[in-house]
Amino acid sequence: MSGAASTSGPESLDDDLAPRLTPRQALAESSRCLYCYDAPCVRACPTGIDIPTFIRRIANETPTGAAHTILSENIFGGTCARVCPTEVLCEQACVMNGGEQRPIAIGRLQRYATDALMEEVRESGAHPFTRAPSTGKKVAVVGAGPAGLACAHRLAMLGHEVAVYEAKSKAGGLNEYGIAAYKMVQDFARKEAKFVLGIGGIKIHFGKALGRGVSLADLSVKYDAVFLGVGLGGARGLGIPGEKLKGVDDAVDFIERLRQGKTVGFPKVGKRVVVIGGGNTAIDAAIQSKLLGAAEVVMAYRRGPDQMSATGYEQQLAKSSGVVVRDWLAPRKIKGAGGKVTGIDFVRTKLDAKGKLVETKEVVTIACDMVLKAVGQTLLEEQLAGLTLKDGKVVVGKNYQTSLKGIFAGGDCTKTGQDLTVQAVQDGKLAAHAIDQYLKG
C-alpha cells in the first residue's frame, strides 16, 4: 500500500482515485506512525490537525474518536482527505521520508476515520458537535463553499444564529461543483455539507448572490456581522482570436457540467482536446476528457513543469492517464472553420538570461476540435462595491476584517497564493473566532 494515491490514474469516472482503507489496512498503516512530539506534519497542516493523536486513535481501533480530533480543527476533513495535496504538505513533512521509508498515508487514514464517523452520524442522527447557548447575535455568511460553511459551523458552535446566502442551488461551493468526479465520487460533497449543517442554527437561502437578491448594505443593516466567502466566480479569458468558436469552453464550466451531469446533461467531449493551463483545474479537465473518451488530450502550458501550480504528483497522474503534457507554449490564435474550432496556434516560449519569460518566433500548431481554458479564475468585483480590493482580491487584516466595519472575508476571494480547500476551511474557522470577538465588543 502506497503512502499516497496511486499515480496510475483512474480508469473511469466512477473509479475512486484513492479507495478507502479496510480496517486491517488502517490498523497496519497507523501502527507505522512514530507519534512524534512537536510533529512536523502538524506544522505543515494549514488547519493544525493533531495528526499523531488521530493516528494513534486509529491504532487503538477508535476511528470515530480519531475523526473528532480531525473535524475539531477541519470540519471538511472528509473532502481534504480526498483532494488535499498531502504529498506537498503533511506527508512531505513526515519524518518517515528518506531512505527506503515512505511517509505515513495521512490522507488515507484521515479519510478512513472521517468516513466512519459520518456513517455513524447518518445511522444515529446524533451530531458530534453541539451549539453553545444562544448569544442572540445574527451573522450573515455569503457563499456556501468550504470557507463559508466552515465559518458558519464554527459560529453556530459559538452560539450565534447564522444565515447563509448561496448563489447556486446546492451547498458546497467548489466541493460540489469544481472538483474532478474521479477525486470525489458518490455524491460525497452533498453528504458532507449535510453533515456540517447538522449542528443546527444555520439557515441557507439558495439562489441569492450579491447583486442578485441581496446586497452588502442590506446585510450590514440586518445582521450584526457579515462574512464573505464568495470565492472566485469569474473565469479568466485568453484574450486571443477565436475564443468564441464552438468547441471552446472554460474548464471550470466543463467540470461543473460533468459533476452535475444528472441534472443538466452530460458534457460532450471532442476527439482531440487541448487544455490550456498548468494548475489542478487543467489537470482535472484533461484527465476527465480522457475518461470521457477523447482519443487525444494535450495539456499546454506557457512555462515549464517546475513553474506549474499543479504538483508533481498531479502532473504524473495526468501523464499516466494518457494526457500529453507540452510545456513552453503560449496560445496565440484559435483556428476554426464553419464556426467550429479546428486547431490552435502557439508560440514557443523560453526564459531569457534574466529568467524572464519571452516568446520566440517559432509557431506550433496543434489540431483539435475542443479547447478548454484553465488559466485562472477572477473575482466578480462589481459585487463588492465599497470594499478595498488589491490585485483582484479582497483586502483583509489579520483578523479577517475588510475595510468596512463588521464585514469579514476569507477563502479564495482573499488569497493571492495557491487556492486550497484546506486553507479556505482554516480561513472560515479563524474568521468565525474573529467575528465572535468582534460581537463581544
**Largest sheet geometry:** 5 strands, parallel
Domain unit count? 3
The backbone outline, from C-alpha atoms, is globular
Q: Could you give the distance between the termini?
A: 52 Å
Q: Catalogue the unreliable spans.
A: none
CATH architectural grouping of the largest domain: 3-Layer(bba) Sandwich
β-strand percent reads 15-25%
CATH H-level superfamily title of the largest domain: FAD/NAD(P)-binding domain
Instruction: Provide the structure class.
Output: alpha/beta
Give the radius of gyration. 22 Å
Give the spatial strand order of the biggest sheet.
3-2-1-6-19
CATH topology of the largest domain: FAD/NAD(P)-binding domain
Average pLDDT confidence is 92
Query: With helices defined by DSSP (H or I, 4 residues minimum), what is the helix count?
Result: 16
Number of E strands: 19
Question: Roughly how much helix do the residues carry, as a percent range?
Answer: 25-40%
- CATH class of the largest domain equals Alpha Beta
